[in-house]
Automatic annotation (TrEMBL):
Species this protein is from: Malaciobacter marinus
Lineage: Bacteria, Pseudomonadati, Campylobacterota, Epsilonproteobacteria, Campylobacterales
Listed InterPro entries: Methyltranfer_dom, SAM-dependent_MTases_sf
Pfam families recorded: Methyltransf_31
Protein name: Ubiquinone/menaquinone biosynthesis C-methylase UbiE
Coiled coil: none
């Protein structure tokens, strides 16, 4: 039986690192297409230039760096992951010696980055802030400001503006989760979910019961919060994803933000 209840988000990603599918590091097992779509959107939004220094906080399976690698030769790429298990997984899968761009992955938390001040031209943090508490979010924004150059571009993605677990009372009950899916998402979703459960029960494939809470903040409050740390809004839009049929879907619960660093404080 390989159904595991995660004690925390950190525990969940330690578990994901043991999965054979490297896409599990981004929380998208079996959906390399979705991971690529999301990271390609980020890449197209950033106007990256040769010789820039780029930070990806929560770099997952390095899809974003792989895209940069195909398009540039002399960038410096720094990735951050919070667990040794994730870094070990990435180091096994990625042949860094073959990269044209200087690439390094460090173990660190978003709210305590191991980099000097004013280092990065671009910073990406996608699908990370929702895993933190309020204090950690503030400290993360402060750290992003600290390590970024003045006028750097910051991409903050997949930040919920509502509680995505509201009215979802199934908790960690698999039966309740299955019937919630049947009621709200239809028979096909129910059947696929049931299939996932049985595969996990009778094979080595693991199914993770994730943490049922997350950070969320409305758009206006987050823009004000970010500005306190010298992040000035340039764009805000609904997060985009694709379904298994390649149809583009606008999120009904999450925004993506693009900021510029305009430093007025002494760091």
């Amino acid at each position: 039986m390989s159904i595991i209840k995660a004690k925390s988000f950190l525990h969940e990603y330690k578990i994901r690192a043991k999965d054979k599918d490297i896409n599990s590091l981004s929380g998208r097992q079996g959906r390399a297409d979705l991971t690529y779509f999301i990271n390609m959107n980020i890449f197209n939004s950033l106007n990256i230039k040769e010789n820039e220094t780029i930070l990806d906080i929560g770099c997952g399976d390095l899809t974003f760096f792989k895209i940069i690698e195909k398009n540039f030769n002399n960038c410096t790429l720094e990735g951050v992951l919070p667990t040794s298990e994730e870094i070990e997984k990435v180091n096994k899968e990625i042949k860094f010696k073959e990269y044209k761009n200087k690439t390094q992955i460090s173990k660190a938390f978003s709210f305590k980055l191991p980099f000097c001040d004013n280092k990065f031209d671009k910073v990406v943090i996608n699908g990370v802030l929702l895993l933190l508490n309020k204090e950690e979010v503030d400290n993360t924004l402060n750290e992003i400001s600290r390590v970024s150059k003045n006028n750097a571009t910051i991409y903050i993605g997949e930040l919920p503006f509502v509680d995505e677990f509201k009215d979802k009372s199934y908790g960690n009950s698999i039966i309740k989760w299955l019937f919630y899916g049947l009621k709200n998402r239809g028979f096909r979703y129910f059947f696929n979910s049931l299939k996932t459960v049985f595969i996990s029960l009778f094979s080595k494939n693991q199914m993770i019961l994730g943490v049922k809470e997350h950070y969320f903040i409305n758009k206006e409050d987050f823009i004000k919060k970010a500005k306190k740390y010298d992040l000035v809004l340039k764009e805000c839009f609904f997060n985009k994803q694709i379904d298994v049929n390649k149809n583009i879907i606008n999120s009904s619960t999450r925004y993506d933000y693009i900021f510029k660093i305009e430093k007025k404080r002494l760091i």
